[in-house]
Design brief:
The chain contains seven helices and five strands. It is of the alpha/beta class. It is globular, with a radius of gyration of 16 Å.
Length: 177
């Protein structure tokens, strides 16, 4: 099975994804890292040199390359579900999980983050708040198409794994672990 984690930047896709994969004994993958390996350059450089349209085509291709993988948790970029038919693909190929946070919680996480996000670099706190609110409102209609929506603040890997294992239609069966 493939689990696709979706949500806004700062929602915890990579952190929870690593912990969930470790708990399940699965592999963790980051879609942006896979894209960088495929292209031989960083995501910001791809955007700068080749443009967003090129990046989105590459992102969709790399996403489709995950089809048929086994026992993997994939953290997707914040915009991945919002382009083309990527959300439909993820729902058909595996289990999509939206790590939901409010704009206020996202702002607090991103504003206090030790790692600078390229899209937020140089923004004042007020500009960042507006950006997060607008982008989240724009993207959430896609995120909410996930098969499972969880509160990113209160979800831990053990609880999430129990939901995936034992709650229909996500039952993976005990013998897989």
């Amino acid at each position: 099975m493939i689990i696709y984690l979706v949500g806004f930047m700062g929602s915890g896709k990579s952190t929870l994804g690593r912990r969930l994969a470790a708990r399940a004994g699965w592999t963790f993958m980051d879609l942006d890292t896979m894209i960088e390996q495929e292209e031989g350059m960083t995501v910001p450089r791809i955007f700068k040199e080749k443009g967003e349209a090129y990046f989105r085509e590459l992102e969709s291709k790399v996403l489709r390359d995950t089809e048929g993988m086994k026992d993997v948790v994939i953290a997707c970029g914040g915009g991945t579900p919002c382009h083309g038919d990527n959300m439909d693909f993820m729902n058909n190929a595996g289990l999509s999980i939206y790590l939901k946070l409010t704009a206020k919680a996202l702002f607090e996480r991103l504003h206090n983050a030790k790692v600078t996000r390229p899209l937020l670099e140089g923004m004042s706190a007020d500009e960042m708040k507006v950006y997060i609110e607008q982008k989240l409102e724009e993207r959430e209609k896609w995120y909410l198409r996930s098969k499972l929506v969880v509160d990113a603040l209160s979800t831990d890997p053990g609880t999430l794994l129990d939901i995936i294992r034992y709650e229909p239609p996500y039952n993976l069966g005990r013998d897989q672990y």
